[in-house]
């Protein structure tokens, strides 16, 4: 049968090569090659785990080989320049150009369909402004003992372990050069974070890496040891993340090296899995008490939390706890479900969590409605690459933006989508020293700085074109979106914005508030009784 032809030919050529090699030794190489293929085919026939290999000995491996390079074939030869899967060639090229400091202008008109649904733009002014500096900053923790002046564009949470030693070095040195911050991710502060001296935001997840005892519980003494170092500028408690909300972090065993084991305090040879929930608190009020305790232990450094929005009553419970107790985080980072550098099950990446735009709006609206927005800063992350991405996010309600994969592109990532198997071809997301040692820190750190610098220059130019002088002046009225071939709406018209203090005197005419605000509790994350009733009945 034809499906055995490749195997039969390997056997035949092996026999012929062996016969010829008896007279001409040069044929020995041919005998070795076809002999190895014959052995492979024989193994295929005898094994029972793969029906495909039994039915197509030898030939099945060509299929596996082609499948393994499928992402690269699609990325370089098939996908269009604007196909975002997950980032388009156009987006990646923009990062590469800006990180290298080469020309990033586009000839011959936009590749975007300006009459297509969801096309967005910012209106320009007949009276443009002139702003000399592009170093736009926002003060976080103005009421704390050690407030921090942050750039409006920073490096999002990516742990050592998920990223290589040299990638961490390059990111942190780039942050130091550009005077912006580098979020450690939940994998704790590694020696490579400390080496270059760039500003750090220490993210503490449910595994309490870097501040845990032998049982994996939060340890105050170990926290103080790290938190009080001058390089750590802010403390961020991770409640959930966009890549896998509600799932906890996952670092495959293959990437848990001796260094990661020492940095995180976990054993080698096992998957490093963060619990899906914290053990240091279990209610909204306890969360805020934990925030206040960490702020105190760190010497008054700005302390807040990061979350991907899920059940709205849980976020409302936190908001009510703020209002009732007066205990406030200095900041909240909203992570969109479209974001994330971490590996996660496909269902979590594709279908769990609220996308960044809606999540950001909910957090912003709630704080405005409680009269707390001016006292709590909001950061946001979720596929932010360009100056327009930053402008749109700030217009929706954020104070600053974080980016993870954008900065990965700046240090050389080519979107091979092999972050999870330790085979990253560019040495960015691997613990294999034969790969990551070829990532040149001196060169890539400059690229990180240039990407940040050139993106903020582009943001400045956009602001000037719109007649503005600082990103804080951006509002939803500045961003326009096409909603049909003949209709355009500003974000201010598309989204319902809550009036200042509106939640203090009633419930806004806004569906999510109407449905869940009244039943949310500051002492519990539990679902409201009406939701539990629905969960217990299909009628």
Automatic annotation (TrEMBL):
<dbReference type="Pfam" id="PF01645">
    <property type="entry name" value="Glu_synthase"/>
</dbReference>
<dbReference type="GO" id="GO:0015930">
    <property type="term" value="F:glutamate synthase activity"/>
</dbReference>
<dbReference type="InterPro" id="IPR024188">
    <property type="entry name" value="GltB"/>
</dbReference>
<dbReference type="InterPro" id="IPR013785">
    <property type="entry name" value="Aldolase_TIM"/>
</dbReference>
<feature type="domain" description="Glutamate synthase">
    <location>
        <begin position="150"/>
        <end position="468"/>
    </location>
</feature>
<dbReference type="InterPro" id="IPR027283">
    <property type="entry name" value="YerD"/>
</dbReference>
<dbReference type="InterPro" id="IPR002932">
    <property type="entry name" value="Glu_synthdom"/>
</dbReference>
<comment type="similarity">
    <text>Belongs to the glutamate synthase family.</text>
</comment>
<dbReference type="GO" id="GO:0006537">
    <property type="term" value="P:glutamate biosynthetic process"/>
</dbReference>
<protein>
    <submittedName>
        <fullName>Glutamate synthase domain-containing protein 2</fullName>
    </submittedName>
</protein>
């Amino acid at each position: 049968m034809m499906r055995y032809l490749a195997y039969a030919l390997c056997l035949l050529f092996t026999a012929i090569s062996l016969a010829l090699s008896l007279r001409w030794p040069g044929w020995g190489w041919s005998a070795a090659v076809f002999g190895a293929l014959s052995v492979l085919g024989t193994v295929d026939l005898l094994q029972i785990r793969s029906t495909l290999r039994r039915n197509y000995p030898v030939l099945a491996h060509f299929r596996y080989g082609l499948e393994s390079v499928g992402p690269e074939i699609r990325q370089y030869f098939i996908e269009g320049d604007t196909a975002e899967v997950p980032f388009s060639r156009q987006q990646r090229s923009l990062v590469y150009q800006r990180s290298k400091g080469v020309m990033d202008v586009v000839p011959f008109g936009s590749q975007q369909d300006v009459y297509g649904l969801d096309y967005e733009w910012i209106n320009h002014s007949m009276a443009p402004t002139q702003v000399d500096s592009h170093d736009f900053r926002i003060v976080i923790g103005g009421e704390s003992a050690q407030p921090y002046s942050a750039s409006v564009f920073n490096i999002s949470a990516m742990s050592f372990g998920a990223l290589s030693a040299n990638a961490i070095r390059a990111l942190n040195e780039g942050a130091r050069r550009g005077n912006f911050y580098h979020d450690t991710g939940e994998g704790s502060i590694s020696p490579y974070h400390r080496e270059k001296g760039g500003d750090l935001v220490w993210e503490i997840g449910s595994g309490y890496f870097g501040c845990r005892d032998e049982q994996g519980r939060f340890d105050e003494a170990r926290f103080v040891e790290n938190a009080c170092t001058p390089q750590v500028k802010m403390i961020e408690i991770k409640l959930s993340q966009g890549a896998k909300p509600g799932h906890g972090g996952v670092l495959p065993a293959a990437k848990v090296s001796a260094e990661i084991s020492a940095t995180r305090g976990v054993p080698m040879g096992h998957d490093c899995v963060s619990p899906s929930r914290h053990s240091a608190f279990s209610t909204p009020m306890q969360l805020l008490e934990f925030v206040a305790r960490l702020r105190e232990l760190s010497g008054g450094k700005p302390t807040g939390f990061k979350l991907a929005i899920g059940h709205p009553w849980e976020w409302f419970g936190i908001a009510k706890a703020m209002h009732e107790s007066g205990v406030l985080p200095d900041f909240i980072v909203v992570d969109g479900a479209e974001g994330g550098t971490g590996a996660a099950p496909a269902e979590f990446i594709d279908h769990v969590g609220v996308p960044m735009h809606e999540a950001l709006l909910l957090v912003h609206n709630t704080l405005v409605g409680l009269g707390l927005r001016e006292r709590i800063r909001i950061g946001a992350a979720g596929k932010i690459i360009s100056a327009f991405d930053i402008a749109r996010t700030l217009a929706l309600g954020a104070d600053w933006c974080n980016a993870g994969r954008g900065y990965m592109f700046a240090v050389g990532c080519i979107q091979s989508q092999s972050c999870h198997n330790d085979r990253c071809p560019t040495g960015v997301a691997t613990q294999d020293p034969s790969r990551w040692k070829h990532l040149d820190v001196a060169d890539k750190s400059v690229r990180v700085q240039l990407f940040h610098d050139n993106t903020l220059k582009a943001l400045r130019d956009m602001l000037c074109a719109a007649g503005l002088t600082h990103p804080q002046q951006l509002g939803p009225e500045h961003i326009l979106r096409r909603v049909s071939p003949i209709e355009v709406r500003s974000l201010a018209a598309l989204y319902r914005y809550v009036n200042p203090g509106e939640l203090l005197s009633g419930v806004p005419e806004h569906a999510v508030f109407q449905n869940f605000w009244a039943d949310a509790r500051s002492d519990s994350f539990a679902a409201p009784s009406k939701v539990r009733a629905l969960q217990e009945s299909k009628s």
